[in-house]
Recover the amino acids of this structure.
């Protein structure tokens, strides 16, 4: 009995569409990298005559809106939460810069509440964020 062997076919991966796949992957990566993950609260910035820029690394942001609502990195918080978070941040990374971003029409008493927490904790790396006027 004579058994015929099949001839093996040479399989190859088509490389014609590889450039299309690479191009689509590049577009996807570029779009994902443009997404801004920073949460912001809509406020009207106060103006200042002299502005100093700070680095964007190791920042903690406290937002205070017109009605006096406090937001810690974009999420609503009360003064107790702010105090606990600041104390923990200062213990773990004392060089973390704190940015206070308050609306132009925020009553000073609301900002003073946050400043008294900072004074109590002896937090020294603090910046007030303003619009260059």
């Amino acid at each position: 009995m004579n058994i015929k062997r099949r001839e093996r076919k040479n399989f190859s991966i088509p490389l014609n569409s590889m450039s299309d796949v690479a191009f689509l992957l590049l577009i996807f990566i570029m779009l994902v990298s443009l997404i801004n993950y920073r949460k912001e609260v809509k406020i009207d910035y106060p103006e200042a005559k002299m502005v100093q820029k700070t680095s964007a690394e190791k920042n903690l942001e406290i937002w205070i809106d017109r009605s006096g609502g406090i937001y810690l990195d974009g999420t609503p918080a009360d003064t107790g939460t702010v105090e606990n978070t600041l104390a923990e941040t200062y213990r773990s990374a004392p060089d973390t810069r704190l940015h206070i971003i308050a609306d132009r029409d925020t009553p000073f008493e609301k900002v003073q509440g946050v400043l008294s927490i900072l004074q109590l904790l002896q937090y020294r790396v603090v910046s007030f964020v303003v619009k260059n006027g």
About this structure: The chain has three helices and seven strands.
